[in-house]
Structures are given as structure tokens and as C-alpha cells.
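Hey, can you fold this one?
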Amino acid sequence: MNRLFRLTLALLLAVPAVHAEDTEPAPETASPLSESATAAALARAEQLGRAIFLHDLAAERATDALVAQHRAFRKDKRVRGWITEEHDGRYRVSYIDATPTVLYRVEVLPDGSVDDPVEVLSVPATLSPYEAGAAAARNLAMTAQVASCARTYNSVVLPGGDDRWSVYLLPGTTSPTAVPLGGSHRLDIAGGQIIASRGFTRSCIQLNRAPSTRGAKVVAMMVTHMLDLMPTEAHVYWSLWARTPMVVVTGEDAIWEIENGHIHRMADDADNGTAR
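Sure. Predicted structure:
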């Protein structure tokens, strides 16, 4: 057992953690990246993971606000979904019908607070070009055949520029302690077609952040992930969503920690003679 694994084992014995594995090997063509390429890939994973989280949080808080402020919303069968759009340092959540037109709008700040009273449109509004593109991408993604790990899925649509979109399909859960990492997918869309897709796991991994039977609080989640050379935006998102650090093992000498949306390689700590 090498020094890095001894340090990691000491960390996990010292604090309660939950552990799951995704042991499908990485593609044979995968090869180590240069230091600059690794830094760029990690920065992109952090940026995308945080964006997914903030858009998803906005939709969650907007729905809560609509339920609280407009009782008829819960029974409004016209609603077919929502679109989130970042603008001016906040997030606009637009709820749409099958037409599609906009039925409700809610403005949410990055901390999840609702900035203004919800907007109930007496006359449904025409979608903006952004909303129309995002809605079309979401609708297309929802027709894709993907490996499902939950009865319900949430979606987050992120713009890619030049009529390109990335749609993230995220498993839903009603458990207050489950973290349904397994079954998360990304679909890339351009020109009205799905041009690429990927699942972030090979199985329906579900982490659990419930305290132990002796009352010890879980301070970290741990997952073995052999599909990539480093953590992905899905790991960053679920760590932020669970509000719990995540340790991701991608190889014998590749152990990463995600905390508050930031990724660092634990080997860096090991080389310095410390463990976090």
C-alpha cells in the first residue's frame, strides 16, 4: 500500500464517510494529461458543476415560492416544465406550457433567495429566443433513451453558444439523506439534434449522508470512479447539492477531494506530508 493510500485510509478512518464504487474501467485510449490540460479540465468541471447547481437551486427555490405565493400553481396542469436563464447576476425561472409559452416567471438570486414576488402571467407570454432554444433542447433531451436510475428526473439546460446546448438529466429523490449520483447524464445538442451524450456512472450508485447509528455525522462521501482521469462536473454538482465534501478515487495514485465546489488532488497534500 503506497503512502498516498495510507494517508487516505487514515483520513477515512478518522472521520465518518460513505463509500460507493463505479468500477467500469476507463477507456483504453485514456492517457495522462499534461499539467496545464489537467488544470483546464478541473477548472471546467468546477465551473460546469457550480453552474448546474445554481440553475437547479434556482428552479427549486422558484417552485417553492410559487407554491407559497400562488396556491393555484400546484394544480396547474398546463405546466410542462421550466427553463432557467442566468442574467444580470441572477436567475430567471420561466414555467412553460405545451405550446410552448410562459405561464409564470420567478427571479432568484445566486444564494437561492427569491428577489421579487412571483410573476403570474394572465396572458401567456411568447418565449424569448433563448427560452425557445433551451425549451427545444430540453424537450429533445427528454426523449433520449438513457439508463435510468430514478422514477423522476430533473433537468438543467446550459447554453453552449452558436445554437448549442448541454442538457443535464439528474435523478430525483424523495429521501432526505440519499445522494443519487448514479444515472446522471449529459446530452449535447446542436442544430436540433443530439450530437453527443454520456452517462457519468455505469451503475445506479447512491450515496447516503445519514448519520451513523451512533450519531456520528457524515463529513465526507467517497466514490471510486474509473470512467475518467479526474472528477467531473457531476461530482462537483452532487457534492454541492449534498452540501458535503466528496472524495473521488480515479486510480491508485489519483485521489481527489471536492469541497465547496473546488477540486484538489490529495496527492498534493501527501507530497507535503499532510492529509486533509
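The helical segments are 3-14, 35-69, 129-141, 233-242, 266-271. Let me know if you want another pass with a different chain boundary.
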